[in-house]
Design brief:
The structure is a homodimer of 493-residue chains. With 493 residues, chain A is of the alpha/beta class. Chain A is built from 14 helices and 16 strands. In chain A, a hairpin with a 3-residue loop joins strand 2 and strand 3.
């Protein structure tokens, strides 16, 4: 009940039938669409439904955005000229769309450059391997390194091996990622990537290999960052494509010793920079109150970052543009942030998601007026659930959201908002309430961080459904008076 | 009617109930399984059904064969040490299986070695491209070559361009392969690969690019051989992965000039050799009469040749082994040939499928006694149709085949037997009747000639259904008296 008291402001606003008739909505249609308690001064629920329907009818902005972004610039590694060119293009495009306050916020970082890389079996027979160095990995010696492979089923098994037991060898962890709708299978294998090189090096290994953190069975390795320890990654780490990991496991099952040669000319660029791109639909009544929408503009270097996270940027830009193009501004400001450098770890604290920290550093003074934040960074498949801040539980706001989103297949779901996103993470940790529009990730990790993350993988109907859900929810939050923060503790008398 | 007269020998053989009872088949079951005219001395139809059922129950020989072949040896390019090692392994394994007359027949060839290769967009922005040099392509100059891309929708459009119109440029043909069940979409785009480098060179181009001859949308290019003209391939040719071809088309559609850099260190090995592996189940009554089963042991170099054609070799070996393990030999000989060097063209005539010509050269004197030939080389998905030689139309043999194969989902289909296979091509052209067990190729060209042609793509249930159809049909042909040759022309009186 406490939560519902705090977010029921929405219901205080009376229907203004003049505004509705200006929008061509009859009172009869209104009664059907928005019973009793959901009305606002401009009938926020009806407008939300109209935004939803405009998006699902085939709003072309999102697809055009991700098509042009990925076609013109291809991969956009953090700190690269390509990422910078994409950011400049985004600024120009957002200005042309009529957004307010469009600008860049630059920040320094250490960039990592893949260079050339290769892997091959040298025993029992010569065979090529498909590998990708883990982000942050140091290069191998020129000409590569070679060693016998020691296979571990899990990272825990590797961590259990005695110190010195892997001297001169290459450690391979073969745990398979589990396919799930909510993406939970990914979290279960990411520690291999972040901790594997350290754990292998501590035991004397000369390199670390892992089965790709991905659910496909293609000869494409899944990139991803490893973690620096005291500013360094001790030994080179590589992901193997899943069929290659299968092959090594089968060779070992035949009782054959497996030797592998790995080469990488990876390098670091210490004085690189990246940037966040910011654009707003300024609020008409309380512009200082911000609903924050995040996605990231950088990508891994193997694919063109279509699903990760070109579509995220496309979804939030298209949703905000639908709101921008309404005849009335929302009461609050809708702020779009296209984060730079989400993907690569940094040698020094804070170690990851550098655009996220730059935003938090630059805007911390505004956080008290950040009413809600959400992030789109799990591909382009349909949204199947929405999670609102605990303070919204049972509120008229939540019920309105559900009425608007139910027709496009969205459930209300209780879920940890710690999952809300990497880019908005520092902002949410600072106390800004978050929402989650949960995308179906069943197929996302088939292409995630691979060369296969390209435009052809996007389902336009599902992309539009994302835009619909974002536009409707963001509009409702931005045009409301709702406060999503938990109530202050009641002092004991 | 003429054909049925010639293949009705099968029905002349009376049922031997003693033999049936030895096999545990009651007269009642027999009456249900093989009505009236289909009986033979050992009840060929009942045995065929038993072979079929043994295979579909989960006969492990085929999967184990292709698993070990592709795991131990990986890619098996024609003329390579890997192909030779695989052939030696196959000989040992076939001997261990108890086959007769197991031996190698070696032949010389010119091998082609891929070396290193790369492709990249250099304008309008730098982006990596996924390419594969076409087999037989000469290398580029060291450091690669670079040119503006001229796009043609079809090979015919390229052939229509004026001489000299492509001077210094790179010709790209973007025709998409059509997905079909019978594989016909492949034939429609293969001429791009065989004729493209010549056609582009004639117009002044410095290199030829083609959208991959494949139905997938992965960042994996489809290899395949081009054609030598007067012993040479004029300019380097490459296949682009399909998403890369899309990307170039989209850049051009934005009105941007596209420049590409291509590099290849491909080379030729003039004094290489390959080999056919031959094994038999010798016939018990007329061993000189041969039913020929073909598949090829070589593969392209990017994948491990699991579907092309590891499974073909596995299917025919497993089918022949089921027949080998019967308590009675078939009347005629079943001969398995694992052909070498099916994939790469040769500089001099005959230009392709060199193991095929070697077999024909070595065994032409026996062709009068080759009663039937078939080839398995379209992956491992289920067989959905059988085509028999025209002489078998309407015969009791055909009806028996249909009765045995209908329960596992096989239709009788009229089809051109020119499609029977590349490896048995010269043998069939010399007059040996052919059959076709048509595999479902709907998904085959997703992985064909790519790095993705690996063991994980095999569906074991469908693989076993292939073995079932092959074992049953080959048994029926080998244990019959049927003559599948067309009747001699009737002399005019």
């Amino acid at each position: 009940m406490r939560e519902s008291r705090r977010v029921c402001n929405l219901v205080r606003r009376a229907a203004v039938l003049v505004a509705l008739s200006m929008m061509g909505v009859s009172a009869g249609a209104l009664a059907a669409a928005a019973p009793a308690a959901g009305l606002t001064s401009r009938n926020a629920e009806t407008i939300a439904a109209q935004l939803r329907d405009a998006a699902t009818a085939g709003h072309d902005v999102a697809y055009s955005w991700v098509s042009e972004l990925t076609t013109r610039f291809g991969p956009r590694p953090a700190g690269s000229a390509s990422e910078q060119a994409a950011a400049a293009w985004a600024v120009a495009r957002l200005k042309a769309f009529g957004f307010d306050e469009v600008h860049l916020e630059s920040f320094p970082l250490t960039a990592w450059v893949r260079g050339n890389e290769s892997g091959e079996l040298v025993a029992p027979t010569a065979q090529p391997l498909t590998v990708a160095a883990l982000g942050g990995s140091p290069p191998t010696p020129t000409g590569g390194l070679e060693g016998e492979v020691a296979i571990f089923a899990t990272l825990a098994d590797l961590e259990a091996a005695p110190r010195g037991s892997l001297t001169g060898r290459i450690a391979l962890v073969t745990q398979r990622m589990v396919r799930t709708q909510n993406g939970a299978g990914y979290g279960a294998v990411v520690p291999e990537r972040t901790e594997g090189p350290r754990a292998a090096a501590e035991r004397g290994a000369i390199a670390f290999l892992m089965r790709s953190a991905g659910t496909d069975s293609h000869r494409l390795a899944h990139a991803g960052t490893t973690r620096y320890v005291n500013g360094h990654v001790a030994i080179p780490g590589f992901a193997l494509s899943n069929p290659d990991a299968d092959q090594i496991e089968r060779l070992a099952a035949l009782g054959l010793a497996v030797r592998v040669r790995l080469a990488s000319s990876a390098s670091y660029v210490l004085a690189a920079h990246s940037q966040n791109v910011i654009a707003e639909v300024r609020g008409g009544e309380r512009p200082q109150q911000v609903v924050l929408l995040g996605a990231h503009l950088d990508s891994w270097d193997l694919g063109t970052g279509a699903l990760d996270d070109g579509t995220g940027t496309a979804i939030i830009v298209a949703a905000a543009k639908l709101i921008r193009d309404l005849p009335h501004r929302p009461r609050r400001t809708v702020r779009v942030v296209l984060f730079g450098s989400e993907e690569v770890a940094q040698p020094d604290p804070p170690e990851g998601a550098f655009g996220a920290h730059s935003y938090a550093d630059n805007h911390r003074a505004e956080f008290g007026q950040h009413v809600l934040a959400g992030e789109s960074d799990l591909g382009a498949d349909r949204i199947y659930a929405v999670t609102l801040p605990p303070a919204a539980a049972g509120s008229e706001f939540a019920q309105t959201v559900l009425r608007v989103l139910t027709p496009i297949g969205v459930l209300l779901e209780k879920r940890s908002l710690e999952e809300a996103g990497t880019d908005i993470g520092p902002t949410v940790e600072a106390g800004v309430p978050a929402f989650l529009l949960a995308q179906d990730a069943t197929h996302y990790f088939d292409v995630h961080h691979t060369a296969d993350d390209t435009l052809d993988k996007i389902d336009r109907t599902q992309l539009d459904q994302n835009v619909a859900a974002w536009a409707a929810l963001v509009w409702l939050a931005a045009d409301s008076d709702a406060d999503f923060r938990p109530p202050p503790p009641v002092p004991r008398s």
